[in-house]
Amino acid sequence: MTDTTRTPQQTAEYVRDGMFANDNATKALGMRIVEVAPGQATLQMQVRQDMLNGHAICHGGFMATLADSTFAFACNSYNELTVASGFSIDFIAPAHEGDVLTARCFEVSKAGRTGVYDTEITNQRGERVAIFRGRSYTAKGRPAVAA
Questions:
Q1: Cα 11 to Cα 133: distance, rounded to the nearest angstrom
Q2: CA 143 → CA 68, 79, 128, 132, distances in Å?
Q3: Report field, pTM of the whole predicted structure over 0.85
Q4: Which of 5, 63, 100, 144 has its CA 20 to 30 A from that of 41?
Q5: Computed from CA positions of residues 101, 98, 64, 81, in that sequence, does the dihedral angle turn out positive or negative?
Q6: What is the domain partition of the chain in residue ranges?
Q7: Separation between Cα atoms, residue 19 and residue 63, nearest integer Å
């Protein structure tokens, strides 16, 4: 099956499987892909003891990595090789050991080679802990996952 014979949802799932198989960072942090769709993704990660900073809260770099991984699955869901050109993150509340963080990423804009994606991170109680905005750059004509 090729991208021309897959539905957009099938393409997103194909890319999810292919990218995750090679994504050592995402797997090493125990992230789980909950859902993908064209221009969207949802991942979860449980905060472990080795993710805590000197204040006994989740290090912001781990939350940024969760959001960045979610952004990667969302912006590559069309099977066009897409990378981050930048991002910003705002931390709203702390995350603690044992918290299950859910990152939901949605495409805001995609035009030409660039895109903008917003990701919200919440804890298991539905409380918002961070907001992430990613900017993407697409290498036209190159698949994210080869056929």
A1: 24
A2: 19, 5, 34, 25
A3: yes
A4: 5
A5: negative
A6: 8-138
A7: 20
> CATH classification of 8-138 is 3.10.129.10, yes or no?
yes
Residue type, 1: M
Task: Give me the sheet containing 32-37, strands edge to edge.
Answer: 32-37, 40-46, 100-111, 114-122, 128-138, 82-91
Secondary element (H or E) of residue 16: helix 8-22
Task: Assign 3-class secondary structure to 30-92.
Answer: CCEEEEEECCEEEEEEECCHHHECCCCCECHHHHHHHHHHHHHHHHCCCCCCEEEEEEEEEEC
Question: For residue 47, which phi and psi values (nearest 5 degrees)?
Answer: -75, 120
The tens place of each residue's pLDDT in the chain, 147 residues long, gives 666 799 999 999 999 999 999 999 999 999 999 999 999 999 999 999 999 999 999 999 999 999 999 999 999 999 999 999 999 999 999 999 999 999 999 999 999 999 999 999 999 999 999 999 999 999 989 999 997
